[in-house]
């Protein structure tokens, strides 16, 4: 009776993956099937209300990181191996929005803000707060183009807009781009200095 979860997990993994793996892998790789299968069974049997799949994944990531050393990627989230990363941690590991939600904790700073206290890969302390876009909100992009008088007019209009709405303009856009005077939009502190 105690082995029932293991037996069910093994049958499920075997039914789902073994035939596909055998049809794709040649003889050189078939000896890995037993190891992969036993890992699935082992992890599936560990699942409980206390030990979540995220906790199991984090343990596995930390173990593999110690084995592989300084593995990093800017094109794939190494936590889930499914999506491109969007947030760089101080340890230079990059993670995607979904992994931020899974491994982060909701912040008191606001809705859709998550605190990452440590990297889920190497466990280095990070103290990063990630602000995510709500699923119903498209990104806000501030694009400023032109120099000289045109650039000053744009900055003057932003100053008037900011005084009317009462919110710092630099806190509104998710992305700032531009040429000439617009390049200052990439540095909100410089943009604020130019506006005042």
What's the arrangement of secondary structure elements?
Elements (H helix, E strand, L loop, with lengths): L3 H21 L7 H15 L6 H16 L18 E2 L5 E2 L1 H7 L1 E2 L6 E6 L6 E7 L9 E4 L3 H18 L9 E4 L9 H8 L1
Helix pairs in contact: 1-2
Could you provide a short overview of the structure?
The protein has 196 residues and is an alpha+beta fold. Helices cover 43% and strands 14% of the residues. It has helices at residues 4-24, 32-46, 53-68, 97-103, 148-165, 188-195; strands spanning 87-88, 94-95, 105-106, 113-118, 125-131, 141-144, 175-178.
Spatial strand sequence of the major β-sheet: 3-4-5
What fold name stands as the CATH topology of the largest domain? Herpes Virus-1
Question: Which architecture name of the largest domain does CATH use?
Answer: 2-Layer Sandwich
Which spans have pLDDT < 50 for at least 5 consecutive residues?
none
Structural overview:
- Residues 77-123 form the RING-type domain.
- This is Pc43g00010 protein.
- GO terms for molecular function: calcium-independent phospholipase A2 activity; zinc ion binding.
- It is a single chain.
- The chain is an alpha+beta fold and 196 residues long.
- It has helices at residues 4-24, 32-46, 53-68, 97-103, 148-165, 188-195; strands at residues 87-88, 94-95, 105-106, 113-118, 125-131, 141-144, 175-178.
- The protein folds into three domains: 4-68, no CATH class; 69-135, 2-Layer Sandwich (Herpes Virus-1); 141-195, no CATH class.
- It is built from six helices and seven strands.
- The strands form three sheets. Strands 3-4-5 form a three-stranded antiparallel sheet, with helices on one face. It has a two-stranded antiparallel sheet with strand order 1-2.
- Strand 3 and strand 4 (113-118) form a beta hairpin.
- Helix 1 runs antiparallel to helix 2 (32-46).
- The longest helix is centred in the N-terminal third of the chain and has 21 residues, at 4-24.
- The radius of gyration is 24 Å and the shape is elongated.
């Amino acid at each position: 009776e105690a082995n029932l979860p293991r037996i069910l997990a093994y049958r499920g993994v075997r039914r789902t993956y073994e035939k596909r793996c055998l049809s794709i892998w040649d003889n050189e790789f078939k000896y890995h099937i037993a190891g992969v299968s036993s890992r699935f069974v082992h992890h599936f049997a560990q699942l409980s209300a206390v030990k979540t799949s995220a906790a199991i994944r984090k343990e596995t990531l930390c173990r593999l990181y110690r084995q592989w050393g300084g593995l990093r990627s800017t094109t794939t989230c190494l936590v889930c191996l499914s999506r491109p990363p969007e947030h760089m941690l101080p340890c230079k590991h990059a993670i995607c929005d979904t992994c931020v939600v899974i491994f982060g904790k909701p912040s008191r700073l606001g809705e859709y803000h998550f605190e990452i206290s440590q990297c889920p890969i190497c466990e280095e302390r990070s103290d990063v707060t990630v602000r995510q876009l709500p699923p119903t909100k498209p990104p806000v992009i501030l694009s400023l183009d032109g120099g000289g008088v045109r650039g000053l007019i744009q900055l003057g209009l932003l100053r008037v807009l900011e005084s009317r709405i009462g919110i710092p303009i630099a806190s509104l856009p998710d992305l700032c781009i531009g040429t000439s005077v617009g390049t200052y939009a990439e540095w909100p502190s410089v943009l604020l200095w130019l506006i005042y």
